[in-house]
Each structure stands twice: as structure tokens, then as C-alpha cells.
Amino acid sequence: MKSRASSGAASTDAIAASCCCPSCCPTRRSGGSTRRPVIGGALLFLKRRILLPLNRWLYEYTREHFRRQHQVNLVLFACLESLAIENARLRHDIDALRSAAPAPLPGAPPGAPRPPR
User: Does the pTM exceed 0.70?
Assistant: First the structure.
């Protein structure tokens, strides 16, 4: 019969052997070995020399692009906001001018010019 201490150590060894992350198993090399004897070396070369640098470049490029796009969006929304404010002010001015203008002559068609003041 096993004692509790030895069974606990055996279970942690089993967990460490089945784990694949380097954070909880610092003794294992992450990505340093392969279980595919025929094409394993080529896959590791492909991952390390091609895919990893490509992913790093893509991440840096998109991060910079998204930062610039965010700046453009901020400027465009500020312009849109100022245009909306100006549009509301102009509508208010037009409504004020329409209410101050003399009423059209009775019987005049709807698009007819108004009489001078």
C-alpha cells in the first residue's frame, strides 16, 4: 500500500509529464524537441525561422496600423461632430429667418417667390 506522500508525488509527476506548457514545467524545453522523427526537424525549422518572424512582423505592422487608424478615426469623428453642430446652428438660423419672413400672398402657388419687404 502506498502512503499519501508517495501517491501525491506520483500524481504530480504524471501531471508534469502530460503538461506541455513551459510555465508549469520549467524542466521541459518548449519547442526544442519533436515527436515526429521524419519531418520533425523540418517543422521546427519552419516554425522558428519562417512562421515566428512572420507572425512578429505581422503583429507589429497591424499594431502600428491600428494605432494610426484610431488617430484618423478620432479626427474624423471630431470633424463630423463640428459639422453636426454647424448644421444644427444653420437649421436654427433658417427656421428663424422663415418665421420672420412675411407670409406668402393668399392664393399664390407653394413655390412662388415671396413679395419684397
Answer: no
